[in-house]
Structures are given as C-alpha cells and as structure tokens.
Amino acid sequence: MQTGPAVWATILAIALALALLLPGLGGAPFDDPGEGQHAEIAREIGISGDWLTLRLNGVRYLDKPPLLYWLVAASFRRFGADEWAARLVPVLGAAAAAAGTAVLGARLLGGFGGAAAAAALLSSALFLVFGRYVRPETLFVAAIQWGFTGLLVGLDESAERWRRVWLIVGCAGLGLASLAKDPLGLIGPLSVTAVALGLTGRFRLSSLRLPLGGIALLLGLGVGWYAIAAALYPDFLWYTVVDNHLLNALRARNFPDEDVPLSALEFVTVSGLGAFPWTIAATIEIGSLIRRRAWRDPAEMPWVALALWATGLVAFFTVVPFRLPHYALPAYPAIALLAARRWMMGGRRALVGAHAIAFAVLAALAVIVGASDGRAFMDAIFSATDVYTRKEAVIGQASPLPAWSAFAPLIARAAMVFGAGAAALAVALVAGARRFAFVAVLLTMLGTMPLTTSGAALVASERAVAGLAARLGREMAPGDLLVHEGPIENSGALEFYSGRRPVLLEARRSVLGIGATDPEARPTFWNAADLARAWSSDQRIVLVTPRAPRQSAVAALPPDTVHLLDQRNGRWLYTNHPRNTR
User: Fold this and answer.
1) Which of 326, 291, 421 is nearest to 124 (CA)?
2) 543 forms bridges with which residues in the sheet?
3) CA distance 279 to 282
C-alpha cells in the first residue's frame, strides 16, 4: 500500500470534518433531552473522582459504557465544563470516522477515492448532526470503521509487511467500539469479515489468526470494563445483556425508558435520507456486486464485507421491533465507500441523471415548503427523526420546537443550493463530464451541511433547560428543595446549569430505572404522595416539569398553593411558597 495517497486523503478528511463541525460549536446550550444527561454524567465523574461507576443525578447509571464520559470528563478538566468542551469529543469522533474511511478508501480506490468517500460521509446529514452532539454515536462509528480498516487492510495479501500492525489497529478499534457503546460493535464486524472471507473462498483458520497483541487489545478494551462492572454489581450483566438488549429488542424490558421506536418503514426511510444522496450510488453498487457475483473473486472481499455490513445492519434493525433513528449510523462509512466506488466506475450517465432529478425535486419541494406555514414539514421531519418529539406525542403533548420563521430561511437557502446543484448536474449530463458531476454532487451536499448544523442549534436552543436553570439560581435559597417531574434525562443538564440536584418525581421509567432500585437511591425518587406531603409543609419546594399543567402532578395539588414562577422551552417552574426575587 502506498502511504502517500492515504496520508493526504486522511489530512483532507480531518480538515474537512473540523471545518464543518468546529464553527459555533459551543454557541447553543445543551439539547435537552439528548445531550444534557451525557454532559452531566461526565461532570459528575470530575466531582466524585469515580471513573468506574457512572452516575447521573447521583444515581448509578448502566445504560452506556464509559468511553464517552471518560473523554468528556477529561475535556472538562482540560478546557472547563462547558458546551464547547463537551462537544469537542463527538467532533473528534466524527473526524476519526472520516479518517478511517479515507484510509480504507485510499487503499481500495486510491487517494482521490479515499478523500471522496470521507467527504461523502461528512456530507451525510444525520452523521453530521451527531458529529457535534454529545452522545457516543460518532465514537462508536469511528471505532467500528477503524476496526474494519485494520481488518480489511491487514487481510490483504499485498499488505504482508504491515499485516500485523493493521490487524492490531483493527482489534483496537473493535475493542473501543464495545467500550464506546455496545459489544455488538465488536461482534458484528468480526462476523461480517468472517462471512465475507467465506463467501470469497478465502476463509481459513489462519485467515483470522489475530496477533496476540491484537487479541489482548480486543479483549482488554472490549470486555475489560464489563468484567469489572460485573464484579462490582451482580445485576450488571443481567441488565446489560438481557434487559437492555434481548428484552429491549422484543420490547419486553423490565426497566423500560420512554423511548418510542420507529416503524420499520420509518427506520428505512430515515436511514436512507440520513445518508442521502450517497445511498443512491451505494445501492447501485451493491446491486452490481450481486449481479456480478463478486463473491467469486477473492479480490472483492473488502467490498463484499462492506456491502454485507451496510445491508445487514439496516436489515437487522428493520426486523427487530425496537429501532431508533440513529441505529443505522455505523453503516454510513460503508455506504460512503460503496458510493465513491460507484462514482469512480464506468456507466455513470444514469447516475448523474438520477442525482440531477433528485436535486431538482428537492429544490422544488423546498420552494413549496418555504411558501407554506411549515406545519406539515415540521411534523414530518421531527416525528420521524426526533426521539423527544415521539415521546411527547405519545402523551398528547407538543414538543418544544423553534418557530417556523426561524427555520424558513434555512429552507430557502436549501432550495437555492439544490437548484444550483441540479443545474450543474444537467450541464455535466449534457457534456458527459462525469468527474465534474461527482464534484457537483459533493459540493451541493457540503453546501447544505451548515444549514443542517444551524437547524440542530435552533432546536437545542428552543428546548434547552439552561434558561430555566439560570432562573433557579436566582430563585432558590439554601434551604429550598428542587423537584423534577419525570425522568431526569428530559432535563439532563438541570444540575449542570443550576448547581442544584433535584429529587425525581415519578421518574423510575427512565435510564435510571435499575439505579433506582439501589437502597441509597430511594430518597431521590418520589411519588405523588411524597410530593403532596412536602408541598403542604413549611419547606419551600420548587418544581420543574416538562408536563403541561393538566398532565402534571400539580393538577392534583390545591390550586391556591401552586404558584407559577416561569414557563419557557417546554417546561414549567412552580413553587408552593412564592418569594419576591429580582
């Protein structure tokens, strides 16, 4: 493998990721729910000094492994605890995912192909949104992609000199995937690689004979923390393996949260549009691999593996009953690589025409949406892609979202970008300029990415708890008691911004469900009777709730004791004893 093309493709990939994701990184407050709980868990690591037992609101948290929280806690220690420092971690994850895609692309397609694949990944809207969102998704995608890169390059006979190094890199990546989010990130790529070797006739017991150093990293990173957690907490493995995976997939959890899964059709649609337009070329390339029976050619093994991963992952979550919008993200680097290969091969006239039509249709739709009141557009987009909007719809309550007047300018700009892209592709189609057509597609999509990140920032600002938390800082005296109604993840950054830890009312159906069973956590979790007793006492209670008055616990309290202090960003602030404040 020539290192020069891979190096410059990787540098371009990292530079593009940082250019797209760093501007305005700390400008918006944490999105709640979504980012806030993860930032707060990392903050509590720094306060407690306990890096093994994750806690949220002081309660044991077992839903995710610790890599994200360790890295964010380290970033807080270095840069201070704020939005920029927290979001820097997913940005670096996105850059690492793009770099891993570029390296594998350079190995398979040359330097230009590697850079093109990385750019395709970074111009996939759903991936870019999570690239600056405090969740483990981009770390998970990056680890899996480096796992694939290490394995697929290391298994190439031409890489004999560096085979050991690449296989160690692959093992480390898959181990980190398990530590970032899920052991399936380790098991899935290994299984797919073995199947691809078998299909292409290259499977031997020696084929996956990994170096001892690689095995040590695979097991140490991928299993080590789980073994320690299991030793510390007897209920950990049952919760993680059975309840949070097997029973969750069957929608039969003992400790469910409030997440509402997508239907199979919604999931496939969101997954496809999240990587638009690269899913078009990737689908055509997968079809070509099938028609050519590419598995008969051992040289096609990497492409067979990537096609199996992309299709298998989407198919798996289409079949299982529980699926969320971001579950297909680990397939996006494979989709980007498959799309880049299709663009670099012959017979692309139909591909250019398909993209020209798709961009023209999107430009026309954007014009139509921009001329409307935006209700249908907002409902369609957020009901399918936003977990909180879906949760609120179940109880018949509208999720706090930005006004259409804030979104409309973004839609207008999108119409112009897609219109320009359609025109450029029409010229390329007539002139037969295939390379120019690909560049036009890429620039069009990159041109829409700042609109995507701006839209995400608008949403975060509209439903963040930061403003209400600032009011709490002025409102509460040392002896006052703060109560939050519902799962704390709905206002995860409440303590982060206010410095006050709430008691949780009717909040056991949450990510803290199993933590709530700990004896020391029982005083943290109240029911309606606990609130009623405290509300009628002389102690001042301040209640934060994301529930509208008729759906909130305050509806059952004596009306003359309920005093509304504030209402903003989809939350209400009440007290039983008003106090004059500035």
Assistant:
1) 326
2) 483, 574
3) 5
Closest CA to 56 of 530, 527, 518, 540: 518
Whole-number Å distance between alpha carbons of 304 and 60: 42
Q: 217-260, pLDDT tens digit by residue?
A: 999 999 999 999 999 999 999 999 899 988 988 888 999 988 88
> Which two structure tokens, joined as six digits, stand for 555?
């509806």
Name which of 16, 2, 17 is nearest 111 in CA terms: 2
Same domain, yes or no: 400 and 474 = no
What is the pLDDT averaged over residues 185-202?
A: 92
Residues 410 and 470 in one domain: no
In 3D space, the residue among 149, 185, 178 whose CA is nearest the CA of residue 166 turns out to be: 149
Strands (E), 200-270: none
- Asked whether residue 580 carries a pLDDT value surpassing 70, the answer given is no
* DSSP codes, 159-173: GGGGHHHHHHHHHHH
222: in domain = no
pTM higher than 0.70, yes or no? yes
**Residues near 487 by beta carbon (within 8 Å), at least 6 away in sequence:** 257, 258, 504, 507, 509, 510, 511, 512
Residues 350 and 437 in one domain: yes
Which of 104, 114, 186 has its CA nearest to residue 144? 186
Domain that holds residue 565: 466-575
Residue 68: C-alpha distances to residues 417, 429, 439, 529 (Å): 35, 45, 35, 37
Burial bucket for residue 492 (CB in 10 Å: 0-12, 13-18, 19+)? buried
Q: Which are the contacts of 289, defined by CB distance < 8 A and separation ≥ 6?
A: 295, 300, 303, 304, 307
Are 446 and 119 within 8 A, CB to CB? yes
Provide the pLDDT for residue 44: 98
Give the model's confidence band at 17: pLDDT under 50 very low, under 70 low, under 90 confident, else very high.
Answer: very high
Give the pLDDT confidence score for residue 210 in this predicted structure. Answer: 86
**Contact call for residues 534 and 577 (beta carbons, < 8 A):** no
What is the per-residue pLDDT across 412-427, written as a single tens digit (0 to 9) for each? 999 999 999 999 999 9
- 391 domain residue, yes or no: yes
Name the pairing type of β-strands 525-526 and 571-575: unpaired
